[in-house]
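Recall that a protein's primary structure is simply its ordered list of amino acids. Everything else, from secondary elements to tertiary packing, is in principle encoded there. The following example makes that idea concrete.
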Amino acid sequence: MKNYIKQVYWLTSDEEARLREKMDRSNIHLRSAKGVVCTPLDEINKISSVSPEVWSANCARQGAWYRASEKNGLYLIVSSFELEDLRDKRVAKITKSDFRPPRLADLEEKREMISDQDFIRKIPPEWGNISETEKRIYLRWAKKLGSSVEEYDLLFLSHTANHANFMKPRFFVRENETIIPHSIDRSAHLCSCCLELFQILGEEYAKKLVSPCPGATIFARLTQDEYLLVERP
């Protein structure tokens, strides 16, 4: 399996500015993400910064989870190499995995997951404000990735249930006594995998197995249905 590593950090504005200065002195280009937050996951991007404003750009609805989290206002740094001076700011290491889920969630299980009252209380109101244009985009992306789903409501059910599983796992594997939650559906039926990859959702779990969403396959050139292992330091 090809060696793929991304280190994930969250910094204040001042910390990001100091990092940018240090990278400049080392003749390393700290790329600024534009429009979407997933481009730093592309292998060609060695180190990238995502400003708080990007979470309110093209994926503003999905970014509501970021804005509702304790990371709101912080800069996301995704690097292919470790930043020794910022070791205490590192929240995850992302690598590729050959994991295949024992099974995927069925329709009734997804409905049960999104009906959990603890989960419902944590859903940002903006998450459900979906424009007709966005619905068409997600249906088109799902079809591009091989799905035959024709109703957006079914996609949204999968999107929401998948996030629920990383907050209150129902689908997981065990490593000794450790619970490792995993994505509950194929890439075509997912949305905003960035939330799990960048530790906005499910940070309390030492390991997670996350399948890329359509956006990550398009904008970061990740392979659909190829799970990524997210490990907390």
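The first strand starts at residue 5 and ends at 11. Residues 5-95 form one domain.
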